[in-house]
Amino acid sequence: MKIGIDKIGFAFPEFVLDLADLAAARNVDPNKFKVGLLQSEMAIAPVTQDIVTLGAQAAASILTEEDKQAIDMVIVGTESSVDQSKAAAVVIHSLLGIQPFARSIEMKEACYGATAGLSLAKTHIAQNPDSKVLVIASDIAKYGIASGGEPTQGAGAVAMLVTADPSILVLNSDNVCQTRDIYDFWRPNDDKYPRVDGKYSTEQYTDCLTTTFDYYKKKTGKDLEDFAAMCLHIPFPKQGLKGLRAIAANEDTLTRLTDRFYEAIIYNQVIGNIYTGSIFLSFLSLLENSQALTAGDEILFYSYGSGAVCEIFSGSLVEGYQASLQEKRMADLNQRTKVSVEEYEKIFFEEIVLDEAGNSIDLNSDESPYALEKVVEFKRIYHS
Ligand code: HMG
């Protein structure tokens, strides 16, 4: 049975910061971000937007009423959860009006969570071919003001509908994973921002890729030459480019895949790191910006989550996949509201103030289709 991605949607918050402005404010050469990291803008989410609202918005952009009746599992991959117990998937299930007899869960392993969700979805569809699974990758990446990771922050969500006989990508069964118990990037329960061993994390990203790809080649007999494009986890685009260079043995293949890589980072360059959704945003960018792909092309994926777990897997583009995509996404991204560095620091790092009874005080109203409206007795109340 062919199982894979039938639909893919993306949601981003309203505000954007130009990294040239951030560089000026931090007294850094703007080319460090633009050329050194290949990053030009970052998405800024206000306090009324979180992984629930972004995830719901991404899913709402692709689902029909028929889909909502067929979905019997909702999986949210995230590492910026709003509750230690209640899964964001439960709230999103409700906001979207999905039929009640569904399983709704949250999955975590840093930037790898949604990839694990995709595998679980595939297994579920193999056993229940008529059902559909909604997999959402939703995150807000905050490293803190003037931190090393500051120019790589971002916010957004990617939603994927996984079904039998999908319209976009058939997932192959060639997955290879690696687990390594390391502290390259982690966030203890009481910390607001992650702790990062920046240089070490970049080395681990690449070493996990090279060693897992060696194992993948041995196990499957495939090599980079077999693929039309490669999508990688993109903490910032230069990291992905370095990864691709680290595994390409043949110059012609590297040139061809580098051309595809630049098409696959167009959205990431203006959004920033959205953690577990980054690799899927890169896939969407590739699909919507490349003229070089055709049905039947094989795409290779490298998912990496700090801590660390990584996975290499692949998929095959379906005939007519272009019909499921959007043409004007870049125009929509260009419509975002630009903020100054001062405004960014105020908006991105604002916190909800609660009274003693757990009710929010002076929370701004947000007219977005999905937004946090208030907190009542410590319960987050959303509008849709
Ligand atoms: P840094 O140490 O400030 O930057 O932060 P740098 O000095 O390494 O410079 C970065 C690049 O800019 C270098 O390029 C410089 O040469 C270049 P490279 O040599 O690496 O190709 N550069 C310039 N280029 C042009 N003109 C200039 C200029 N100046 C410098 N004037 C660091 C870099 C990655 C450490 C930092 O951004 C950071 O800590 N980021 C967060 C951690 C991270 O993203 N790690 C990536 C791997 S781990 C991962 O992917 C998982 C993650 O997504 C989390 C999860 O799984 O949940 C992060």
From TrEMBL:
Active-site residue list: 79, 111, 233
Keywords for this protein: Acyltransferase, Transferase
The organism's place on the tree of life at top rank: Bacteria
Keyword Acyltransferase listed: yes
Biological process per Gene Ontology, one example term: acetyl-CoA metabolic process
Domain Hydroxymethylglutaryl-coenzyme A synthase C-terminal: 178-250, 260-347
Binding residues annotated for (3S)-3-hydroxy-3-methylglutaryl-CoA, in chain numbering: 29, 143, 242, 273
Record-linked Pfam families: HMG_CoA_synt_C, HMG_CoA_synt_N
Annotated coiled-coil segments of the chain: none
EC nos: 2.3.3.10
Record keyword Ribosomal protein present: no
Binding site for substrate: 148
GO molecular function, one term: hydroxymethylglutaryl-CoA synthase activity
Domain Hydroxymethylglutaryl-coenzyme A synthase N-terminal positions: 3-165
UniProt similarity note: Belongs to the thiolase-like superfamily. HMG-CoA synthase family.
PANTHER family assigned to the protein according to its UniProt record, in alphabetical order: 3-HYDROXY-3-METHYLGLUTARYL COENZYME A SYNTHASE, HYDROXYMETHYLGLUTARYL-COA SYNTHASE
UniProt protein name: Hydroxymethylglutaryl-CoA synthase
